Every structure is written in C-alpha cells, then in structure tokens.
C-alpha cells in the first residue's frame, strides 16, 4: 500500500559558490537545518513573552508550563493541566521544530505559529486571560513598552505584535545535529548496527509514508487507525472539527518524531506511555503488522537517534510590573 518513490539523484549542497559539496543521503527524512535568526531583538522579546506568566489570569502559567523547553517542549502529561487545574482534552505536542509543520494543533486548525499563539492565552483550559487584559498588563509595564517600541516602532502594543514576536522565538526552536542527522549527512559511524536495522525496518515497513520530511512528520493529516480502529475515550475528533467533512474524522496531523524520546506520553490522547507501546500500536493499526519485541526494540533504538541539540537558552529576566499593572487572579 505504501510504495515509496525512490529518488535517484543525490542531493548536493553547494557551499556559497565554493567547489566543496557535501552529499546528503537520499532518504525520505532530511537533516534539520539550524535556525537563522534575522531579527535578534524580536526573538529576544518573543522569548520573554514565552516565559511570561503575567499573560495568564493566575499569574503562574506561561507557554513554557505546558511546552517545557527543559523537557523536549512538552509537559510529559497525558493531557495538559491549565487554569484552575482544569484538564485539557489533548496531549501537549512539542513546540520543537513545529515551524516545519504544515499547520499547528493536532487537527491543524491554526495555519501557522503566529495564528496559533493567540489561542492559548485566552483558552479557559490554558491561560484563561482575555486578550484585552493581556494587552493592558503588557502596556502597564514600562520595560515591555520600550521593548515593543524598539522592535515594532510603536508604543501601542497589539495582539499581532505579541503573537508575531512569540512566533519569531518559536522559529528558533529547532534541534539540528542529532546522530541520525549526522548519518544522513554521510557519517557511517553515527548509527550502530541495531539503530540502522531499526531505520531500515521503519522505512521498509512503511512508517515513512506518513513520518517523512525533516521533522519525520508534520507533512500531512492521516487517519489514526487506518487498518484497525483506534479505541479512545478522548473527545477529540481530529481534522473533521476543522473541515466539517465526516471522512476526516480521526485524521490527525502526523506528529514529528524528532526528539520523540523526550516527548512521552504519546498520541493525541496521551494513552501510550512508552515508545515501545506507541510503535507496537502504529505497526498494528496503521500498517497491519505485528512486530516482534526484537523488531520493536530496533525501531525504538532508531527513534532515539533523532534527539537533536536542544535549544540552549539563557533565562530571560522579565521587566517588573508597575503600580498600574492589573493583578493576577489565581482563583478566578
Ligand atoms: C495549559 C497548557 C498549555 C499552555 C499554557 C500552552 N499550550 Fe500550547 N498547546 C497545549 C496543548 C494541549 C496543545 C494541543 C492542542 C490541540 O491540538 O488541540 C498545544 C498546542 C500548541 C502548538 C501546536 C503544536 C503542534 O505541533 O501542533 C503550539 C505551537 C503551541 N501550543 C504554542 C503555545 C504558546 C505560544 C503558548 C503560550 C502563549 C502555549 N502554547 C501555551 C497546551 C498548552
Ligand atoms: C498512515 C499514516 C501513518 C503510518 C503509516 C505511521 N504513522 Fe505513526 N502516526 C501517525 C499519526 C496520524 C499519529 C498521531 C495519532 C494520534 O495521536 O492519534 C502517529 C503517531 C506516532 C507516534 C507518536 C508520536 C507522538 O508524539 O505522539 C509514534 C512514535 C509513531 N507514530 C511511530 C510510527 C512508527 C514507528 C510507524 C511504523 C511502524 C508509524 N508511526 C506509522 C500516522 C502514521
């Protein structure tokens, strides 16, 4: 069912006109490129907003609460916990390499990172903060007013500026240089025999039909439970919530497998606690194939080679509130 197009031409990267060329192996997954920072001041502002708990009603929840950059950009919970200890309906996907995905959210309801970033601030199961109040808070903090002016040339802060700065920061959250990337770039020693056997199995059994591209995912929406239905108690219905088309029920954005060793538990409902379980379920439900423990071990060994360099951040120091700053209301 999943015949792969084999491309015969090797991809050659020319380095700035020089005669030197590095050959990247011709594979369905490509190396992650390091981030190019075009506007460092905007990225720095976005980083502050990313760690800013005053964008939440409680004053204690920031983007980093559920997408912890010390933990692969996730909260490692089955489903997220937000304002008032409310449980969200789905598992928090990693934000690492999310700029490489065709759309944001499990059902792709946001087209890009900027469109996504406004949602969690006001969602009641997340930060529960009306946008008008979030803007009042930022506008009351002289340090932010100066920084927004420096980046956007305006003193009046609006949501477009906030989400655009957050998205600029998120675009830097890529994880190049995994061992698998080194292998893709031609280093034969970067993977051991078991890991390589795992990759071969991953490729030959058809996982790459869906998990492909630099992020090993994020390139399409696919049915969860293609060969055998997936049983879940989660209310999430997937892509049909966006398109209204019944055939899109249980179609989810194929998640990235980059850093998947760190982003447990797995699936939109967080029901698979371990990578072994996730691989076993994928084999049976998506490909109609029951792997032996040995085969699962090999695929898992391969998946763990896709953990790349995690973003190295200096903790931002957030500007102090002024006397006019609206106070947080943790119990609202
Ligand atoms: C309470 C936990 C929580 C907080 C706080 C939170 N998120 Fe999320 N985030 C989630 C969950 C859960 C999802 C998946 C929701 C869905 O797909 O329906 C998500 C999805 C995302 C995605 C899409 C990733 C993908 O692969 O589809 C991005 C990007 C993101 N959040 C960024 C942010 C930003 C920026 C903030 C802060 C403004 C933030 N999040 C705050 C829990 C949280
Ligand atoms: C037909 C498309 C398709 C195929 C083939 C496929 N996957 Fe998936 N994969 C998905 C989708 C869609 C999800 C998300 C499902 C969900 O959350 O309900 C997923 C999720 C995963 C996850 C969990 C990631 C996370 O962060 O939650 C892992 C691990 C995974 N796949 C590995 C594999 C492996 C290994 C194979 C081959 C045995 C494979 N997949 C084959 C579409 C596919």
UniProtKB/TrEMBL annotation:
Pfam families assigned: CCP_MauG, Cytochrom_C
Principal subcellular localisation of the protein: periplasm
Record bears the keyword Signal: yes
Keywords: Heme, Iron, Metal-binding, Oxidoreductase, Periplasm, Peroxidase, Signal
Residues covered by region (Disordered): 311-332
Gene Ontology MF terms in the entry: peroxidase activity
Compartment(s): Periplasm
Residues in Cytochrome c domain copies: 41-168, 193-307
UniProt-listed InterPro entries: Cyt_c-like_dom, Cyt_c-like_dom_sf, Cytochrome_c_Peroxidase/MauG, Di-haem_cyt_c_peroxidsae, MauG/Cytc_peroxidase
SUPFAM superfamilies: Cytochrome c
Signal peptide bounds: 1-21
Protein's UniProt name: Cytochrome-c peroxidase
Organismal lineage: Bacteria, Pseudomonadati, Pseudomonadota, Betaproteobacteria, Rhodocyclales
